[in-house]
Amino acid sequence: MDIDSIPEPAKGKGKALDIDVPPPADSENLPWVEKYRPVTLDDVVSHKEITSTIEKFIEKNRLPHLLFYGPPGTGKTSTILAVARRIYGADYKKQILELNASDDRGIDVVREQIKQFAETRTLFSKGSKLIILDEADMMTQAAQAALRRIIEQYTKNVRFCIICNYVNKITPAIQSRCTRFRFSPLPIAEVEKRLITVVEAEKVNLTEDGKNALLKLSKGDMRRALNVLQACHAAYDVTRETEIYNCTGNPHPSDIEKIVQYMLSFRIHRGVPNDL
């Protein structure tokens, strides 16, 4: 079962950009992607069809295994962490196991860490525990086969959330055991709203052309936008278009234009036919 996100501007009381919970007191040195990570499902930017569907699962106490897939920086990890807070409250970290499969991609991790966590029942809280596997498309085929057996064996005790960029790299056996949600790139308008919130909170001197360059280069990737913004703020007093391109290593549009003009003038000077 696939449920796609259809990005659209947030409406009403479920407004996606509301950040009601202040950053923790010790957050000065945190990466901004963590400092301003959504806390509740209502805080998640866009993807309202996904969050509302999951909210119904939670209300009915029928949360299935989940498979989140889509490009980086579109809210997959933020969404499942908000789900964990919604289910378990402030002590949610005691009820979840979060692993990055790009670091722990082999079968030993599945057999040891995941199985050990899955077979340990919760003593002082009701309901299932949650295992989050980020970048699961990096797992080996053997590890995925072992994971499929654990999902089958411990369904009564544990819920899994499989997160990946490329769903075709997840075995059909695992896909069939999960409810799948596709996270699309975020609308530029939504990225801009969150950037404005962070710029005001962090007192970033961001020019209009700098903001436009950042939005253009982010391509709907909120993580990339915030990381570049923080890096530029640390390196420069004023963040303009030039600073954005210098920080990312992307060629400046003016440089590309000069190269194109040179190539065109070279063709004319050498008498190269236009159709070659």
Automatic annotation (TrEMBL):
GO CC terms, sorted: Ctf18 RFC-like complex; DNA replication factor C complex; Elg1 RFC-like complex; Rad17 RFC-like complex
Nucleotide-binding listed as a keyword: yes
Residue segments, region Disordered: 1-23
InterPro entries: AAA+_ATPase (IPR003593), ATPase_AAA_core (IPR003959), DNA_Rep/Repair_Clamp_Loader (IPR050238), P-loop_NTPase (IPR027417), RFC_lid (IPR047854)
Chain ranges of the AAA+ ATPase domain: 62-189
Top-rank taxon: Eukaryota
SMART domains: AAA (SM00382)
Keywords: ATP-binding, DNA replication, Nucleotide-binding
UniProt GO MF annotations: ATP binding; ATP hydrolysis activity; DNA clamp loader activity
UniProt record, GO biological process: DNA repair; DNA-templated DNA replication
Keyword field contains ATP-binding: yes
Family that this chain belongs to: Belongs to the activator 1 small subunits family.
Name of the protein described by the UniProt record: Subunit of heteropentameric Replication factor C (RF-C)
